[in-house]
Amino acid sequence: MKVAIGRRLALESSRLGLTGTEAAAGIGCSRRTWCYYEAGQSCPDAVALARLDKLGFDVLYIITGRRTGRINQ
After folding, report:
1. Residue 8 and residue 14: Cα distance in Å, rounded?
2. Is the separation of the CB atoms in 49 and 21 below 8 Å?
3. Is residue 69 part of a domain?
4. CA 26, CA 41: separation in Å to the nearest integer?
5. Which residue has the higher pLDDT, 26 or 1?
């Protein structure tokens, strides 16, 4: 499950044109933490998910694999 979330995080950051460093800075975590998220070694908490939402990430997609429909796929 964590690996799938990590993969979807990577896909979303790519969709938004953000590097891992930019995404990490955008939610206030270190690049290392972001790498752990993408590798499926840990998952972002609710605060990080809320910050991702503000950056334009499709959080429902990240968590469930289902798009919200509010973005261009």
Report:
1. 10
2. no
3. no
4. 20
5. 26
